[in-house]
Amino acid sequence: MKVEIWSDVMCPFCYIGKRRFEEALQHFEHKNEIEIEWKSFQLNPDLETDPHISINQYLADRKGWTVDHARQMNDHVTKMAAEAGLTYNLDKAIVANSFKAHRFSHLAKKHGLGVEAEEALFKAYFTDSKNIDDNKVLAELGKQIGLDAAEVEHVLNSDAYADDVRHDIDTAQYLGVQGVPFFVLNNKYAVSGAQAVPVFEQSLAKAFGEWQQENQKPRLEIIGGPSCTPDGDCK
Q1: I need a labelling partner for 166 at 20 to 30 A (CA). Which of 7, 8, 68, 147 fits?
Q2: What is the pLDDT of residues 18-62, one digit of tens each?
Q3: In this structure, what CATH number is given to the domain that contains residue 154?
């Protein structure tokens, strides 16, 4: 059964939601029958990468908050992340446009490394304070997860996978996605936000139960008669 997850690299709740979903999946008895596909979404497509501004100042300017209020909000999110086993260093995060990171993610998906790419990007942004809009940073991340660094740089120096990113964003708009993370299970059920683990567990069970019924093999009543088998045994 497929689970599609729309997210943005710079969304703090997306990383938390990823961990909570993973915990629910770990407890799910049919976890090996779940296929996960990450989808691109941009919270602020017009954001300009600026390593010289703090995330607190960026949020204050964008939301009309004071810097102190932005810091308090980030401290709250940092505590939530810690409860999920994540380390956030938001005071050192580099404000960066995520479009290039999403193109990187699509390249990784092509090589069957989509899940690994998302984890590497989230950790780079929230924990390691890396610039996710920098080609060399992304090439190094690619190398770490098993991609060819030269291929990563070649892709990022072109417009490759730009249409794939836009297609994901357009699909999200078509589905009415208002925010991320946004989980779609079996193309039938959606979970919005970094929900608690039990919510993911219940949603997985419900969606998988229906998927299993839809895809079960037909049970036939067989009337036997003379026949031949593939090994040439005819009787």
Answers
A1: 147
A2: 999 999 999 999 999 999 999 999 999 999 999 999 999 999 999
A3: 3.40.30.10
